[in-house]
Structures are given as C-alpha cells and as structure tokens.
C-alpha cells in the first residue's frame, strides 16, 4: 500500500498490487487533485473535505464506476454525496486487473477496495486520537468526521488528512460486518448521469484534439481475402484528404474530417484476392453435421461408463441445437485515438483491456510499455468486442504511418462486417433414462467455428449424472471470432436448458422438480467434481418457482399459463428464470420473465437490477432475432436494417429478485443473459407444443409468417 | 466546400463544409457539439436524434444543405441547466447503462411530449421504437417518459 500526503494537506492512499504490506509511505507534491491521478491511489482527501475516489476499471455500462467507489466509501465511512469519482488511466504499477470482462471486477476487487477504505479510516481516527490525546478505540468515524463521544469533539477528514498521512500504514485492518454496511445495498444513480443526459463528451468517439486527423479503414469485403493492389489516386485528390496508407490487409484514408475520409474511402480502388477458404453458412451447416458424426473429438469430461448406461436405458432422448454467428454491435462503433511519436505513444479511447492494447502497441512500435499511455474513455457498450485490440492497433499503425495524431473511426458497416463475432455452434445432446425416469447417462458434443471449447464441462448437470461424456470439435475458419457477452454460455445455456426440459418431459416429470432432483442427487452422491454450489443452485430454483407462481397460474384463455424454466450458473453467479408466453393471433408472445439471482451481496440496487434486466433483454433479443450469415466469406448483414436488434415495443415485463445472502459479491454483467434463451424457448414449447432447436427463434416454425 | 449558416440551440453558427455533409458530422467535427451520437449512419438507431423545428429528426442522414433556416436543437440546448423534465426523469429513473444512446432517446422523448404531453403506452412504444438501446434499458426508458410526462404540469 502506498500512502502520501500532498503539499496541500490531502491524503492519498492506494495499493501496489495485492500486498498491502509491501509498500511504504511516500510524499507527493502539490496540486492534490491533478497530481492524484498520477499516483497509485484509490482515494484522495482534500483539506476542504472533498473526497475523490479513483475507479481503475474500464466502464462499459456495467456500472463499475459507481460500484467500485461505493465499496471504498463504505469502509471509509463517508457520505456518498461528498464523493467525487474519477476514472483512473491504465497504470499497472498502481492497479491490478484493469479489465472489463468475465464479470470479474467485483469478485477480484471486493476485498482490496474495502481494505483501501478501511485503512484510511483507521489512520484518520488515529490522527484524531493523537491530536486529542485519547485512545483510538474511544473514537469513531462517520460521514467523513471523526468523533470522540466522551468529550463531544469532532474533526472532519479534511482537517485530519495531513496528520493521518504521517502515521504508519496499519496492517490487517478490520473490515466491517455485512450487517453494519450503511451504503452498500442501497440504491444509487450512475455517477455519470449528469454528463450523459446533457451530452457531454464522455465516449471515445467524442474525443477531439486540435490538429488531430481522422481516418477510416477499407478492409477486405470477405474473410479469407487479402489486398492485391491499391489505386488511391482518386481518393487522394478528394477534398480534405491528407494521406492514404496501407497496413496489414487494410487501406486507411486519412483526412481532416469524418465525412471527408468516408467519401474518399468510397472512391478507393482496391483489388483483393483469396488467400483462404471463402466460407458460406451453407458450408458451415454441412460441416456441423460431419463433425457431430465424426469419430475425432477432444474429450472434455468423462464420468462412469456412458456406453453401458445408454445400452441399459429404458428411454433415450437425443436432440441437436444450433446457434448462428452474432456481431457484438455496441452502439458506439469501434474507434480509437493514437498519437505515435518517436519516443512514445498516447492512446485514448474505449477499451475493455487497456493493458492488452498497450502491450500490442508496445510490441508493434518496439517501445517499452511505460512509454505508452492509455486513457480509458467511457464505452458505448462493448459486450466483449473491446476485449480485442485490433481497432486500437488500427489507430496506432495509421498514426505511425501518417506521422500524425489520428482518430480511427469504424462505420457501423465496418463494425458489423469486419468481425469479430460470437462463434456459430451446434450441439448434440443425448440422455439415457432408466425405467423410473432417472437420468443415468448424458452425452454432449459441441462443434463450433473458431469456438475453441464450446462446452463448459464442469457446469451443471456434470456431477449430477453418474455416466457422462462431454467432447468437442473445432473448425478453424478465416471468419474471426471472439468473446461475446457470457462467452460460450450465451448459447450453451439455451441449448442445455432446452434439452433438459425435453428430458424432463420424457421422464414424465415437472421441469423444476426434475432439476431439483438432479441437484439433490449431486448433493447426496456426487459424480466426480462438482464445481458449482448446489445449495445456491437449489435456492435460486426455489425462489424463481415461488416468485413466478410456477405451475399455479392461469393464462388469459383460462388454461394453465405457459411457463418455461431455466437455471444457469456462470461467472460465479446463480440465476434461475421463468418465462411466460401467451398466444396472440396464433403466435407466441413472451409476456414476462421472472429472474431469481444470487450474486451474493448486492452493492447497488439500481445498477444490479439494470444489469439483470438488460441481460435478459439482450438474451431474449438475440435468441429471438439475431442472425449473421455468410456467403463466400462475406457477411450478409451489415447494418441495423438487415441485422435485427430488439426494440422497446418487443420487450416482456421483467421481475427481478435477489437472494441477497450476504456472501461476497460476484459480477452481474453477464450471468443474467445465459438462462434467458431457454426460459423463452421452454415457455414457447408449453404454449405451442413445438421445441425451438435453432436460433434465431423468429425464423422457426412457431413464428412462421411473421417477421 | 460552402459556408452554411445554422441556427442551433438559439445561437448562430457557421460551418465551411461540403453540402452533403450530414448535420451529425457538422455538429460533431466542426461545431464541437458531440451530444448527438453516431450509431448507424442510416437513420435506424436514433442515437443521432436532434430536433428540427421541434420535430425529432435523425441528423446522420440530414445533409447540412437541406437545413436552411430551420431551427436545430441538440441535447446540449434542450435546457440551459440540464433540467428539462425529460432530463430530470432520465436521472431520477437512472436509465443509462453505457449511456451512448441516451441523448438520442431523450431528444425523441422530449419531442413526443411536446406533441403529446400525456402519451399512452402505445404512443411511447411507437415513438421510442425508433431508438435502439443495445444495453436493453427499455423498461426504464418507458418509465422515464411517464415520469417526465407528470413533470410537465
């Protein structure tokens, strides 16, 4: 931990890495507020009492810029209204894991942030106790003040900051009990609300600087093609155009405004030639069947004797589920600013992984990483797309070649057609049931296009089935793929939870009861490792069933309401959902989705609810409408007129219930999304008698005839 | 290039640009008004929504040469202090996740309420379905439009 007093009397406190004990106090120079950003700090206290809390992780809409400082403020014992939140830039010496991804920020930083706040509180109390010559135990801290109850004395944190900074940094400070939290668990607004609602520059695309040039990049129209020749004569003659540069397989037009470079790009003459397979969706469909039936596969998990189980089965259920490629489509397209100089580089823009961006830039430029600064802007969504640094490198390479500060802007068409994508996958599930309807055998094969391992072999129902085989096959393709919100599970959960519904039906059991029986069996007689918490799975299952009135409600036609159940554990959180569907004009309409969520402690009610509701809308929207297809390596969809995103008139009512069990919190950016597809598909089955084996649902039989 | 005189947020501006330059890029690249966002460039997402004579209009497909003497209002000029009833409602309901689409949503909602101060649920959906929110904040968008409607009185 680092500690420092500013010349102005402010206190700065932060961590170097995980080990609080590894560092010693240091003195900072003047200009508390601006200097603070240059130092490794989670918080700064100015003499006037203003408390600045630095949020090191990128803000992508997951609410981390509100949640992180709240955790520090909780242990610091300050009034949230006193707190000023500042986004910290990339600084790997001062912070760890400055990443927005994997719903991992909260579980990683929960204890570290609390320690930062609590350590400062103990020191401020210590400074007051010294000044009053009373024992520290006789003093308390609240609302940014230290109090001595016996004498009625009190001093503000601002008045104490300078003295506190001179004290030794205490080790192993006592953190608050869950029951003593006063800030965590209440409702807080997004700290950037005012800037957002008044249109202030916040995002990467909003970054402008005097003398900055603009660039757009022409990329191959199809995956598997490369540049053969470039004729930029006409483009260079267009108004405002400064330069045309070629790098990798790209041609960049550099000029004085966005519109000018866009128009000049349209008159570039670039010839391409094939350098790899030019694949079409029809090829992938054929390939999926070949791979599902092939003898070669990578075994991911094997328990018991699967072949024997299927031989002895009274009943076998077998189904295949398929999901298409999906673009991420954050509403702010890819963009980045880079200013490459001889001795260093400045990078500014939206990134979920600033350290990766810096690393790739350093490697390309042949500079040490410390010569490159990365400033993170608020991101207009990411959904995993901004975990990659390809678009950052566009800016770095163009800036180097054009020898100028440059902002590279992707159009929506660039963003949607130049990758990367959620991989397309297909699954084959098989279940063996004994005469009593117990699932005694389970097989899953996942095949995917650049999907790596499209299974999650440690997830439910692994551990609950005595004989199990999970394997996978990957096809390598020129079509680039990458993590997409809740990678793999965003489609696996739909397929698995839809299939389990089929198995429950074949077993003649209620879908909720069927899952509960499996979970109880895993508790009683687990098979192999169980890498998820069975009690938490059971608790969310019960809560969702109870809150949705599972099996007890009537639909508008007086018959039992068509409900579909889904349960999924991902990214350390547990989520169960119940979808409700009614038929309108002969078509199924999703009316409501209930969600029961166990993410441990809820830090901010407003933000947490938003993540769950948004995740459900996202999950349903893409399951219903999302489809990206290819013809000879080129995407068929390129903008929102051909790629359909869910709109406000298409959302169901959503009701969210948190378990709030006081356990350490886990992330929420992703876990609410995976279960939604099956909550919808299983409810549609109840309403129509038809299973949905393929996404997007809207192209399947129950929806035929409507778009 | 040609010189265009524009009335934006009650002020006069000049921009020396190609006549086909969309208003969106004039605002952003030339006038320093970045509240209207680029999302699709083909009037499908609503992130670039501004008011043209009080009517919500996508600025990404509106050539600067077509504006003439029309009055343009951007999110920056919706209110002086950021306290238009719709802005207040967006804050109170805590609508934004990433926030990128919200200026466009607010402009769309403000134009709706000007036209129809007491919109029905159907009115809200019909108007607001022009605007995409990739984060899926639609529930709160609906709620915030209703909250804003109550503030108009």
Automatic annotation (TrEMBL), chain B:
<dbReference type="Pfam" id="PF01799">
    <property type="entry name" value="Fer2_2"/>
</dbReference>
<keyword id="KW-0479">Metal-binding</keyword>
<dbReference type="InterPro" id="IPR001041">
    <property type="entry name" value="2Fe-2S_ferredoxin-type"/>
</dbReference>
<dbReference type="InterPro" id="IPR051452">
    <property type="entry name" value="Diverse_Oxidoreductases"/>
</dbReference>
<keyword id="KW-0408">Iron</keyword>
<protein>
    <submittedName>
        <fullName>Isoquinoline 1-oxidoreductase alpha subunit</fullName>
        <ecNumber>1.3.99.16</ecNumber>
    </submittedName>
</protein>
<feature type="domain" description="2Fe-2S ferredoxin-type">
    <location>
        <begin position="2"/>
        <end position="78"/>
    </location>
</feature>
<dbReference type="InterPro" id="IPR006058">
    <property type="entry name" value="2Fe2S_fd_BS"/>
</dbReference>
<dbReference type="InterPro" id="IPR036010">
    <property type="entry name" value="2Fe-2S_ferredoxin-like_sf"/>
</dbReference>
<keyword id="KW-0001">2Fe-2S</keyword>
<dbReference type="Pfam" id="PF00111">
    <property type="entry name" value="Fer2"/>
</dbReference>
<dbReference type="InterPro" id="IPR012675">
    <property type="entry name" value="Beta-grasp_dom_sf"/>
</dbReference>
<dbReference type="GO" id="GO:0046872">
    <property type="term" value="F:metal ion binding"/>
</dbReference>
<dbReference type="GO" id="GO:0051537">
    <property type="term" value="F:2 iron, 2 sulfur cluster binding"/>
</dbReference>
<dbReference type="InterPro" id="IPR002888">
    <property type="entry name" value="2Fe-2S-bd"/>
</dbReference>
<dbReference type="InterPro" id="IPR036884">
    <property type="entry name" value="2Fe-2S-bd_dom_sf"/>
</dbReference>
<keyword id="KW-0560">Oxidoreductase</keyword>
<keyword id="KW-0411">Iron-sulfur</keyword>
<dbReference type="GO" id="GO:0047121">
    <property type="term" value="F:isoquinoline 1-oxidoreductase activity"/>
</dbReference>
